[in-house]
């Protein structure tokens, strides 16, 4: 007789034949009757944060909170776009509490058929299966696999299926997954759709989205369509995680659910995915408009109720686009009216934001009147958008009047000061801009850099170079200036012919890694030297630009021909794109920290994909440094915006044959490995960049480095590091290895790498030298040089 196993209705009843196995009291009979099993908690969908740390990831006693605390974000926004952002530098859409979110509900799923234990033909087989069902869940991965390998002579598909079903029944789903992965490697394996579906659903309910996705892929690779429950549960698992690409993966599965499976998702799933798209932080939400429109289309096609927050969220997304689709916004507003939905203040503010980008003054004033009628105290961002509308209409006094009204109602925020000072500087209202700048400084805020840039730009356009200089030094006193502030002062000095000061400022920029020089500043100082015939200094700047592979402006090339010797001209002609020694070492360090090499299918060559976390202080400094180091290798579309100096958190080099070596050594066949010749490449600079990109310092001052390689590769690099007189300990947690330098070992590691760590990051990454010889703060981590524990409940911080 075959036994049916259902996910939602089953009961545990004692086996009638257990009397013959008195030592196996834990085994129970599977039946299709109702089972009051321990229910899974229903997780409401959290507002997604822009973090690359997965909730499944912990490092052997180190909580995720501790990891994130070591990466505190900076107080001052680094190059954030404040044009259309709210009080805290970014504005989130406010969802109504009645907005229905997805929960893991019951689905009809296929039946897993297994034989009862007493129906098996042999007594020894029943005894061994009963023993395996008892022993396997108690062991971790290495022992678990050894036990199964020892049964290869007799165990078959039906036996393994019984063990997997038993593990799922007693909620040992991780053990069931290991049994399945072991089954796949056997020659007698036959794909069981029902078993894989059941296992995928259980893994998804436990929010182990990586394993659930692996099972989902197995089903698709067999040419089968996954069950509706698998689609639904996997999407919810992705949405419940905060991994860097989880939202994109959830959208991909949602689209496949409709196109591949021809399923009609439930209303709550539509709403959950829509909310996750709109709740995305960091400015990347505006790229999800197409997906949000697709969800809206599915809602209307299926005849489901469209919540008022769906309309509001779509208008909100449209208002953040670079090119405003006014017709679509008008269409959505008409649909809201036809559905009897009243426009909320948030919707009106979104329309006002769209008017601010288009400069539609008449529509903006109409919307402003509605906001005043619906709310006696408009939100602060509404004032900012109205100021922008007046500015685009050429009425700066209207912007100033709006700002004064805002002052009467409440204390202006940082963004409102940014906007009004920017508007007045563009209008060249010097006196008003200066008085408001004094107010802004006296308010006590430290986020002044943006307004100082606006003031210096206005003075430069008006040729008030003395005020440019005084504003620059005032900026040094009040806040930490960036590269743009230094460039504006350098440009002013070059225009006035004060080359001695210009040389001093240029040297300061070049020496400070947090500021640095770029192609504009080099061309600027070169222009000054050539104009005033300082040929020797011009040659030095030319050599620096050649070293950094900066492009020289065409207007300066003719003057350079009269300055350079014949040999220098030939060297310029023969120069080609090559990696410097420093760039090579930086790449190796980043590749050890998790950087990826990807193949360009069109050109059949490789490119480097640089990815940094949005909300990470260390990454914000490191990405600018890496962008400057590899600027000549980057595609034009990822160059820095000259307006605000913002650098994207992900940028890719052009495909080039120079990267072939790193693809072959670190990513052969698309999988990360440690090169066998790593002992030749492991320099102090390599370790430093590995630490900055793929490591962190604990609160006790110890240093941990992350490794996403297999055990053999990790062992190889650990031996290489120990051969360089650096003691380390390795611990495996889930799919990730962590290499720890504790106590005096951390101090030795820091002493070796400190010269190559960026100056602005040394305070955040310095090892605790005072704790040398004392107790380490990682007693609970239980690092061991030969430990490879795998509890199966953790995953890599950055996802799969």
UniProtKB/TrEMBL annotation:
Residue ranges crossing the lipid bilayer per the database entry: none
Q: Name one GO molecular function term.
A: endonuclease activity
**Any idea which UniProt keywords this protein has?**
mRNA processing, mRNA splicing, Repeat
Question: What Gene3D superfamilies does its record include?
Answer: Homing endonucleases (3.10.28.10), Tetratricopeptide repeat domain (1.25.40.10)
Please state every residue range assigned to the domain named Homing endonuclease LAGLIDADG. 584-749
The organism sits in which domain of life? Eukaryota
Whether Repeat counts among this entry's keywords is yes
Query: Which biological process terms from the Gene Ontology are attached to this UniProt entry?
Result: Group II intron splicing; mRNA cis splicing, via spliceosome; photosystem I assembly
* PANTHER family reported for this sequence: PENTATRICOPEPTIDE REPEAT-CONTAINING PROTEIN OTP51, CHLOROPLASTIC
Q: What is this protein called?
A: Homing endonuclease LAGLIDADG domain-containing protein
- Source organism per entry reads Salvia splendens (Scarlet sage)
